[in-house]
Design brief:
6-stranded mixed β-sheet; 16 helices; 4-stranded mixed β-sheet; 20 strands; about 475 residues; alpha+beta
């Protein structure tokens, strides 16, 4: 709030776009119009406006005694619904020998135009009036310029002491700024952070992105900023809890801890016999696929929500859910081909720290890795308006069920098996470099089924290795 000395200076200054004096205590329309005009801040001064009740136009005090009833009446202007969006204001009684002064301090709105009973009021110098069409358009354009994403908004109340400045100086800034530029940069840390959108100059505090990425205790300001892991027995959430762990702290510490945990505690592998003398190693989930999904959850989640990121593991699948549905240009009908960033500053920082690449390839890569590992494709639920969920099936249940089911199906219906053989051969003739994963995905059959049918086609062989190889079909000499 403004100091007593500053109030005295305002009392004896000429009335301008920041100051309005009045001796009335009952003219609520006048008070509301003044507060509305200060909120709109047409000159874009970014300075607060002051309604001084109990003072004449020449600065003399009227001898007013401000009681609790008057304080409550003026304070009620903020939330009575007549001024929208709600103004940011404080009300205080200041005592002088010649009488009291009620001071209403009004901050410029970040969402102009502000309206009082449907009308937009502005101040032109000392004069208050209804905004013209051109002036209202200026305020509307300013609103669009002010509409920053949540991670770019200032975290009011936070200070530089809430950040791990040592890590920012030694690790993060050198990763986003070339050494030559950084060596020549003589600005203080506030200006350096502001240049990478981690500090708000106007409000003098870190942004939410800074707290989420490098804060000493992000949950003090964002209670839901953590990852909750739960291992359930069985295949439903009603099963017994076998393990529970919480990951919290700034992302520069949380992400490597989460990455190590998933690799060491969630990913498992076991030998499975494929013949009398041979066995193969079955991995329940490809490590990089789960890593990609968890990084996306941390990058795209709605940090205003109190719901944590959920990583729930069951016997046959994993569920990952984060607050915030599809954002911006992303829609159910164009997902996953179109993406957008709810937290662009966080996304950029995670890219600089080598956790994501921002190429919009993540989901396609996840599906390819799952199929290559023998899993079925992940299922993305975009129907929840306030949350995003993905279900990843395990190879343990998928491999057994797929092999047994397809074997039984082949026995019961050999014609169906022959049709699949013919289809596989046709696909290979058309595209000799097609992979078994692509065949499985196109046919909507399990990878084990495709490999089993290819093994039966003795006239088809794979020449070379990896992605550089190709299929060859050995033609019968009799047909030639």
């Amino acid at each position: 709030m403004i100091s007593k000395e500053e109030i005295q200076a305002l009392l004896h200054s000429t009335e301008n776009f920041r100051v309005e004096r009045t001796v009335s205590t009952t003219n609520m329309d006048k008070f509301c119009e003044a507060i509305c005009a200060f909120s709109n801040d047409l000159p874009d001064s970014r300075q607060k406006g002051y309604l001084l009740i109990g003072a004449h136009d020449d600065g003399r005090l009227s001898g007013l005694k401000v009681d609790d009833a008057l304080l409550k009446k003026i304070s009620g202007i903020r939330s009575d619904g007549n001024i929208l969006p709600l103004p940011v204001m404080t009300v205080e009684r200041v005592e002088f020998p010649d009488g009291d002064l009620l001071v209403a301090e009004v901050s410029p709105s970040l969402l102009p135009p502000v309206r009082y009973r449907g009308r937009v009021f502005v101040r032109i110098g000392p004069r208050r009036d209804i905004a013209s069409e051109a002036e209202e358009r200026i305020l509307t354009e300013r609103r669009m310029a002010y509409m920053a994403t949540f991670d770019a908004t200032p975290c009011l109340g936070a200070t530089l002491d809430d950040l791990n400045l040592e890590y920012i100086k030694k690790e993060y800034l050198p990763s986003v700024v070339t050494p030559e530029v950084l060596a020549d940069d003589k600005r203080d840390i506030k200006e350096q952070l502001a240049s990478v959108r981690l500090y708000d100059r106007i409000h003098g505090c870190p942004t939410y992105a800074a707290l989420i990425l490098f804060g000493k205790n992000p949950r003090y300001y964002l209670p839901g900023a953590y990852v909750q892991f739960v291992r359930f027995a069985g295949k439903t959430i009603g099963g017994e809890v076998l393990n529970e762990k919480r990951f919290q702290g700034p992302l520069f510490q949380l992400l490597p801890a989460l990455e190590s945990f998933v690799s060491d505690a969630v990913i498992t592998q076991r030998p499975v016999a494929v013949s009398l003398f041979r066995e193969k190693t079955v991995i329940n989930y490809p490590n990089n696929a789960l890593r990609e999904l968890m990084m996306n959850a941390c990058m795209h989640r709605d940090y205003q929500s109190n719901m944590p990121i959920r990583l729930y593991q069951f016997d046959d699948h994993i569920e990952i859910m984060n607050a915030g549905g599809l954002y911006g240009e992303a829609r159910p009908e164009n997902f996953p081909n179109v993406n957008d960033y709810r937290n662009p500053i966080i996304a950029e920082a995670m890219k600089e720290m080598k956790y994501v690449n921002m190429f919009n390839q993540g989901i396609r890569r996840v599906q390819d890795m799952l199929l290559e590992n023998g899993n079925k494709e992940a299922v993305f639920d975009v129907s929840k308006l306030t949350a995003f969920e993905v279900t990843v099936p395990s190879t343990v249940d998928v491999t057994q069920g797929d092999t047994q089911g397809d074997t039984q199906g082949d026995t019961q219906d050999d014609t169906q098996g022959n049709a699949l053989d013919m289809w596989i051969e046709e696909q290979i003739r058309t595209n000799p470099k097609i992979t078994t994963e692509e065949l499985a995905r196109t046919s909507k059959k399990g990878l084990a089924t495709i490999k089993r049918h290819i093994a039966k086609l003795t006239h088809i062989k794979y020449v070379g290795s990896g992605y550089s190889g190709h299929w060859e079909i050995i033609e019968d000499d009799a047909e030639m």
